[in-house]
Amino acid sequence: MNPYRYSSISPEAESTGLGRGTKIRLTGRALVGLSEGRSRRDVPRTVIGRAFLYRAGDTAFWRDIERLYPMPRGKKPVTRTKALHNWRGRLLVTRVYSNTWRNPVNAQAKRRNYHRNLTKRLEGETAVYERIVGAESWDEHHHDALTKRILRHGGKWAGFNCDTKYRYLANVQLPGFELVRDLQTTLHQALSGIHPPRPKLCEADRFRPIVGSPEWVDGADEAPWSAQGEWKVLADSEETWETMRSKLLALTHEHRNYELPAFWRGQVGKGLVIEIGHAEAADVLLKAGMTLNWRGWDAILHTLSDKLTSGWGGEGDVVR
Fold first, then answer.
1. CA dihedral in degrees (204, 206, 212, 217; nearest 10)?
2. Which of 11, 229, 247, 285 would be a feasible disulfide site paired with 235, CB 3.0-4.6 Å?
3. Can you say how many angstroms the Cα of residue 68 is from the centroid of all Cα atoms in its chain?
4. Where would I find the beta strands (DSSP E) of 58-102?
5. What is the pTM (predicted TM-score) of this model?
6. Helix, strand and coil in the chain, % to nearest 5
7. By CB neighbour count within 10 A (0-12 exposed, 13-18 middle, 19+ buried), where does 47 fall?
8. Are 221 and 110 in contact (CB under 8 A)?
9. pLDDT tens, position by position, for the chain (320 residues)?
10. Residues 94, 48 contacting (CB under 8 angstroms)
11. Do 276 and 284 contact (CB within 8 A), yes or no?
């Protein structure tokens, strides 16, 4: 048994008979292809982890993470307004956490996502090793030498800047590294030890306490998007959600719209859903003053082209 996999099985998994080894795949709305031959209606709307079944909003694993990193009371997060679209013709305008460690709420949200995503990425490793060094005797030269040595041995690594110390994780054993026996505790100690310094007036508000191999750390601070029915981020804005909501409602008054409570971990509060095609959505977002994300548009157009070419059909996606 791999010692780094999260071992708990959620009540949903037990009630549906799904546990380790159940082969499934994720579609826009439901999970199909169950190895036991169950119908898709028997399966809750879920995201599938490597070793456990968990819901996008309320799972045993995520509840454990929330207890490890409680949100500070009386504090508000820094947010951005984003517009997402899916190939079925729904535009979702909502607030998401801004990419900053300076705000205590945003920092806890990052720690939660890092803990979840790093657990999933490291659980497949045969072994993980850790080295802790004091900050007073460490500099960029030592850092570069260590990481290059890990790469020369064909390994992957992640480094954490924890104020008075630096912590390194790697999947190869080198002098000074010790075997990690409890990955959850190790990640919690590393992430809890991150405290951004106060920004100086002359320096940019940029703090990167976690670096490492792209396979481990790239995008590890983000909430999972794939569970939301192929939603793609198409535009964002510095304006508040309330302001952008008013603008979009005025521009799309002929289209059906409704508000939807937050349904994935990246959202902060409710969102506005507008049923509108992708071409018209681009024009509306530009008129509202939002900045377009062209990667998102390319992705949604490719998806739309693939669906039309293949004649793919399926159930409606998560937001109805």
1. -150
2. 285
3. 17
4. 79-86, 90-97
5. 0.72
6. 35, 20, 45
7. middle
8. yes
9. 455 565 543 333 333 333 333 333 333 333 333 333 333 333 333 333 332 233 444 478 888 999 999 999 999 999 999 998 877 788 899 999 988 898 999 999 999 999 999 999 998 899 999 999 998 889 999 999 999 999 999 999 999 999 889 999 999 999 999 999 999 999 999 999 999 877 654 455 578 899 999 999 998 988 765 444 567 788 889 899 999 999 999 999 889 999 988 877 788 889 999 998 877 888 889 899 998 876 656 655 555 455 444 443 333 333 33
10. no
11. yes
Cβ neighbours, 10 Å, residue 5 = 18
Residue ranges of the domains in the chain?
A: 11-65, 77-99+224-310, 104-217
Helix-then-strand count for the chain, H and E: 9, 15
| Residue pair 170/128 in contact by the 8 Å Cβ criterion | yes
Tokens read off for 64: 């454990």
